[in-house]
Amino acid sequence: MRYPLVFLAVFAFSSAVAGEAPRIWNTARGQKIEGSFVKATDATVTIKKKDGKVMEIPREELLPLDEQYVVRVQKGGSDTTGPPPASRPKPVPIPVPGGNTPTAAAGGDGVTQDDIVGEPKKGKLYPRTKEEIRSTLRQILVLDKPKSLGNKEVWEAICRLNAHRYLAGVPFHVGTEAPMNEGAQDASEACAKAGTISHSLGHSTDKCNLSMGLGDMASTVNGYIDDGGNNNRAVRGHRRWCLNPPMQNAGFGREGKFSAMWCMNSGGAKARDFWTWPGRGLFPLEYFRGNSWSFYSPDSLPPETKVRMWKMLTRPVQSIPWGEDPKGKEVEIGYTHQYDNTINFELDPKFLGRRGIFWVRVQGRGLREQYCVEMF
Fold first, then answer.
1. Residue 350 burial (C-beta neighbours within 10 Å; 0-12, 13-18, 19+)
2. CATH superfamily of 9-85
3. d(Cα 286, Cα 32) in Å, to the nearest integer?
4. Residue 328's Cα: distance from chain center in Å?
5. Domain 275-375 belongs to what topology?
6. What is the DSSP string of 89-152?
7. What is the pTM of this model?
8. pLDDT tens by residue, 196-222
C-alpha cells in the first residue's frame, strides 16, 4: 500500500456607511480579507482594512453572500438581498458533489459561453475564460451543505478541495460520507494522543493525509496542495492524492491542532488525458502555493522524462510545433523528481508569485506533451 506522506468606470453609488462593522470578505480567488465597507461601484467594492489601508476588490470576484451584503448596504440596510447586476457573467452549472457526472464546466471543450474580448479561441491551450473560472469557483465555495452532514467545517473543506480540483482540470464533484469522516476523526485523535503525526499509529492514519498546526480543515487542504517541506519535496504525495482524478469521496477530521483527510478513494473513472498543477490555461495566481509544479500522466512515465519551460513574451493562439522553441526566456528548473505517473519540478524562485505566461514541455521515450499556463 502506498501511504500518503506526512507534512508538517462606472457611476459610484453613494455608499459610505459610517459605523459599518468589520467583516471577513471572501473572494473567488480564495482570499479572506478583514475590513469595513467604504463604498461600491458597479465594478468594485472599497474596504478599509484593520491596519487602516484601503483596498478595492473587483465585484465580480465577490462570493454571493458578500455581494448580497453590498446590495443590502446600498439599499440602506433593508433586508432585501436582490440578485447581482445583470452585467455579471451568468453562473456555469456545476455537478452535484458525489454524483460523478462531468459537465462542460469541468472539461472545458464543451463550454458554450462566448469568448470574452482578448481571449484566444478556446481549446486545449485555454479551456476556460476568466469569467467561467471566477463564476464556477464562487459556486463551488458556497454550495449548500447536505442536511445529513452535521459538521459545517467538513463541508467547507470538501468545497475547498473541489475548488482546487476544478483548477487542476480533474473532476471536481467529490462528496463525503460518514465512515470516511469518522475514520479521519479517529486518525486525528490518534495523532493528538501521540502528540505527533505518523501513519504507524493505526486508527486509519495509514489511509489519511495528516497535518499539524494548520487551523481549520479547509486550511489543511491549502497545505496539502502546497505540500512543502523536505520530506515531501520529491513525491508531493498530499497534492497527488488531493488531485487524484477518480476520487469520489473524502473525509475530514480534526482534534485540536491535528487534522486528517481520508484520501484513499478511487471509485470514479480514471483520467484519459494528462492533468497538471497549476492547471492548464488561465490560472488565478492566489490559488498557487509553494514552489513546485506537477505533471501527471494517466500511465506511468517513461524513465528519464524531462521537463522544459519558457516564460512567453506574448499569449499563444495555437500550439507551438515541437521543432520550434517558444518565443520567450527559458526558465531554469532547479529540481525535478519523477515518481510513477508524476513528475514534480521547481522553478527559479524569481518566477514564483508573479503573473506571466508559461509554456511547458514534458518529453520522454514515447511521450511528448506540452501545455500553457497563464497566471493572472
1. exposed
2. SLA1 homology domain 1 (2.30.30.700)
3. 11
4. 27
5. Immunoglobulin-like (2.60.40)
6. PPPPP-PPTTS----HHHHSTT--SPPPTTPPPPSSS--S-HHHHHHHHHHHHTPPPPTT---H
7. 0.76
8. 999 999 999 999 999 998 889 999 999
